[in-house]
Design a protein that fits this description.
Length: 894
């Protein structure tokens, strides 16, 4: 409001000055006319005065002052117009002198007012309003009495959320905000005073944003509205409400399709098949609808966080590790460079960085190139420690494990791959034997104080200051993990926090496929699509292998739980045992596969890993050795595992249902529209939601343009889903069948896995390679077309557009996966001349003003009017431009 008042004052002053400028211009016009006539024909001045009188100029002070200034002291013939002005002013009881004095005073007032307004705007912009508001807030002063001494150490966003909760409760209560805050402090003090009181309950936030809310509402006599009471009631049974709604919608949709098939007197076996396929297909639509409703009805909240922006405390030390493989010298150099970049973006005295490495699988325990690769990695880590050594401690580490013989895989490999790496690292951090590692570079003794581990993938970028935000969130009392001995898992707080993962900007520009999927977070259902819903509705997210975990809670929940050579996709399962939360306001960035075939290879591995976890849906789950244990997973965790299995079968169900709709079911257009609707309705709903969620600071036209662009992406994604439907069904079924065979029959190759870099390197970007890989699409489309031509030619009219897309699917996937090439800029002659002139003028500025008087630093600016003046200060922009200009001139001269 203060800014608005100052801006309004500036507007009024500017309007007044503009009006005065118009009056002075009018005075200058008539003064010029009279002075010209007085010089040529003095007796005709009276005629000009008559013309001016007929125009009836306003006798404003600006007009009078400027007119008098121009004519006073001139020829005697110009005394007459001044006399006429004097007579006009006398009608209002004024004189020329009074008008001139009034105008001078007004100019002085405007100058002071504008100067003060601009100065005040600068002051408001530079002022820390957070500190000001908190210093003036009685609620803030009350909440700082938190007996856990946590409130004052939290970041501003968390404190502000607490204050808003107090404000909301006070509006529904007869108490003031200060009294509500006092009740919250009193409840926390009571909990802290009890012997063995819970640390969470001793923190005031437990009664503001956690399970203690009902206690505070009773103490403050809060009167809840009907909507709040309904939301509170439904929140007691979130899983029943969520899954129940999905089951209800699935039943309704499936019933409608079955009723249509039954009306056509289809055979019993066909009805059963249609029912099963419809169940799978409509479940996808039902899940999308419920997730959409959840995003509309549930308000998301960021997790509370401690403020570690000034440094991570010693008791919260953390280690950033990248589990990876040493495959080549180029790969090692890239790993070392990426580790250094992460360190520079997150420098902290109690934050360490390391590589957690294995060698690639081999038929022998050692290969000739192993020693060279290991020495190269060791040298890189030692150079980083020497380059950034602080307080005689190492900030960089290398933890390398030797190959071990795996009888099940019949190969020498790193024990249990990434899961084994993290387990061995956790044991080392807690004083375990170093024998699991063949080489440790860096003084590992300092790592005994590490409480948290941030694990990243090879291509994951750790943005600036993200590390302390991870640690600060984990260290908050309401987020600290509490292990339940009865359920054998973390029941409150979080043992793992999963941040949001976005696609890096360079990664989206590698191909059209990467741009299509990277432009809209949430397209990948395994990493982003439903994690927000889980966090908002159940206060629990899904771990995808990139995030932070508490070492002690992680090990307590997972140590000795899993069988060997069985678990490929361990991230989700670990998140179920250790309870994962979504850190939605902190992002990591990574590259999306630019090649469709690489993405398919990755999803094929995910599906195999998901089906290997099917045993955790049963009451008894596999454990170490051959023993089985009681299943400790919650209902939500089992739903997550089941949902992954269900989703892997949807492409096959959609494809077969389309085929049945064209061949044996009728009407064929209805079944075609049903399948297309399953694919198209979710993006349509997403577009509608985006349209009605206009940010306040965005113009309506800009918002509509952004929504239309997003709708276009959604439409292209849906079309591409239809294009690749047979191939998606083929590789999904292949992954399912392979997994079932390996788990039940062969019991080998359950840990089959390949590096992402290898997939990128082996990606076939030529059309022939895509045709060999995606042959199922053209072959299936041709076979269906031939069958329809002979059996039901009328159906071919509806099926032909989709069959054409299937037939062209290899070519479309090849085209969309081709690397994007940047077109060379071609300038016109006029543009070239313009840029050359601009370059000369720019260089002339530095050539003239950069010199020894200013220590060869470019001045901030040069003023030409009204007085020539050089601002003897500099700026980073000018320094950068000057350096680039000197470098370019040097290059041209050389």
């Amino acid at each position: 409001m203060l800014r608005l008042a100052l801006i309004e004052n500036l507007r009024r002053a500017a309007t007044r000055i503009a009006a005065q400028r118009i009056d002075r211009n009018r005075a200058d016009y008539w003064a010029d006319q009279m002075m010209d006539i007085a010089e040529k024909d003095p007796k005709s001045v009276v005629l000009v005065i008559a013309d001016m009188a007929r125009s009836s100029p306003p006798m404003a002070s600006a007009f009078v002052a400027e007119f008098a200034r121009r004519l006073q002291g001139q020829s005697p013939a110009l005394a007459l117009p001044l006399t006429w002005i004097e007579q006009r002013l006398s009608e209002s009881g004024l004189t020329i002198e009074q008008s001139v004095q009034s105008e001078n005073q007004q100019q002085a007032v405007d100058q002071v007012s504008i100067s003060n307004s601009i100065g005040s705007l600068r002051f408001l912009g530079a002022m820390d309003w957070r500190t000001f508001v908190e210093a003036m807030s009685e609620v803030e002063l009350t909440l700082r009495e938190d007996p856990a001494a946590t409130y004052g150490k939290m970041d501003f966003a968390t404190r502000d959320r607490y204050r808003h909760v107090v404000e909301k409760m006070a509006r529904s209560s007869r108490l003031s905000e200060r009294e509500v805050a006092r009740h919250a402090i009193h409840l926390a003090q009571q909990s802290a005073g009890r012997n063995g009181g819970d640390e969470r309950e001793a923190h005031v936030g437990f009664y503001l944003i956690d399970k203690g809310i009902p206690q505070l509402e009773r103490a403050a006599e809060v009167r809840r509205s009907t909507s709040d009471a309904l939301q509170r009631t439904s929140g007691r049974f979130p899983l029943l409400l969520y899954v129940g709604t999905i089951v209800l919608l699935t039943g309704v949709f499936t019933g409608g399709l079955l009723a249509q098939a039954y009306a056509e007197d289809e055979a019993g076996w066909l009805l059963a098949l249609v029912g099963l396929l419809s169940l799978l297909c409509t479940s996808q639509l039902a899940v999308a609808l419920v997730n959409w409703l959840a995003t509309v009805l549930v308000t998301p909240h960021a997790l509370p966080r401690m403020d570690f922006s000034d440094g991570i405390p010693a008791e919260s030390s953390a280690l950033v590790v990248v589990p990876t493989m040493l495959s080549s010298s180029e790969n090692i150099e890239a790993l070392i460079e990426a580790l250094e970049v992460r360190f520079l973006a997150n420098r902290d005295g109690h934050l360490y960085f390391g590589l957690l490495t294995d060698f690639r699988d081999a038929n022998e325990e050692t290969l000739p190139e192993d020693e060279l690769l290991l020495r190269l990695a060791q040298k890189g880590i030692e150079e980083l420690n020497g380059k950034y050594r602080e307080a005689a401690r190492d900030a960089f580490f290398l933890f390398h494990r030797p190959r071990r013989w795996n009888a099940g895989e019949r190969v020498w490999m790193g024990y249990e791959r990434k899961r084994g790496k993290l387990a061995d690292l956790n044991a080392l951090l807690r004083g375990g034997s170093r024998d699991r590692f063949s080489l440790i570079v860096g003084e590992a003794a300092v790592l005994s104080a590490v409480q948290y581990v941030i694990t990243l993938d090879t291509d994951t970028q750790l943005p600036r200051d993200a590390a302390w935000q991870f640690v600060g969130t984990m260290a908050h009392p309401l987020n600290r993990a509490r292990y339940d001995e009865h359920t054998q898992r973390v029941c409150d707080g979080y043992g793992i926090l999963q941040p949001r993962v976005a696609v890096s900007l360079p990664g989206t520009n590698r191909s059209r496929y990467a741009r299509l999927n990277g432009s809209d977070p949430g397209i990948d259902p395994y990493t982003r699509a439903i994690s927000d819903v889980y966090q908002d509705v159940f206060a629990e997210g899904s771990f995808i292998g990139k995030g932070i975990y508490e070492v002690d809670a992680f090990e307590r929940a997972l140590a000795g739980r899993f069988p060997e050579n069985r678990i490929l996709s361990h991230d989700l399962l670990e998140g179920c045992y250790a309870r994962a939360g979504l850190l939605s306001d902190v992002h990591l960035y990574e590259e999306y596969p630019f090649c469709y075939s690489v993405d398919v290879s990755r999803r094929h591995r995910w599906i195999r890993g998901d089906w290997q976890l099917a045993g955790w849906l049963l009451p008894r789950v596999p454990g170490p050795g051959a023993q089985r244990q009681n299943n400790p997973l919650s209902g939500l965790s089992r739903w997550k595992l089941f949902d992954n299995l269900r989703r892997s079968l949807v492409p096959s169900a959609l494809t077969v249902l389309l085929l049945l709709g064209w061949t044996v079911l009728s009407p064929f257009w209805l079944w075609t529209l049903s399948v297309i609707g399953v694919i198209l309705i979710p993006p349509i709903l997403s577009t509608i939601l985006e349209l009605f969620r206009k940010p306040e600071d965005v113009l309506p036209r800009q918002h509509v343009d952004a929504v239309l662009r997003s709708a276009g992406r959604h439409a292209v994604q849906a079309v591409f889903t239809v294009v690749c439907l047979p191939y998606e069904a083929f590789f999904s079924l292949d992954a399912v069948v392979r997994t079932i065979w390996r788990m039940l029959i062969s019991r080998t190759r359950l840990l089959e896995w390949s590096l992402t870099s290898d997939s990128d390197r082996n990606c076939r970007t030529d059309l022939a390679g895509y045709c060999r890989t995606m042959w199922i699409g053209p072959v299936f489309a041709t076979a269906v077309a031939m069958c329809l031509t002979q059996s039901d030619p009328s159906a071919i009219v509806v099926a032909l557009p989709i069959l054409s897309l299937w037939f062209a699917s290899p070519a479309i996937a090849w085209w969309i996966s081709r690397p994007l090439t940047r077109r060379a800029a071609r300038l016109t002659t006029y543009q070239t001349l313009f840029l050359r002139k601009l370059a000369r003028k720019t260089w002339a500025f530095f050539e003239q003003f950069v010199g020894p008087d200013d220590h060869w630093l470019p001045p901030d600016n040069y003023q030409e009017h009204p007085v020539e003046r050089v601002a003897h200060r500099t700026s980073p922009t000018n320094m950068g431009l000057a350096w680039n200009g000197c470098w370019e001139i040097y290059g041209q001269n050389r």
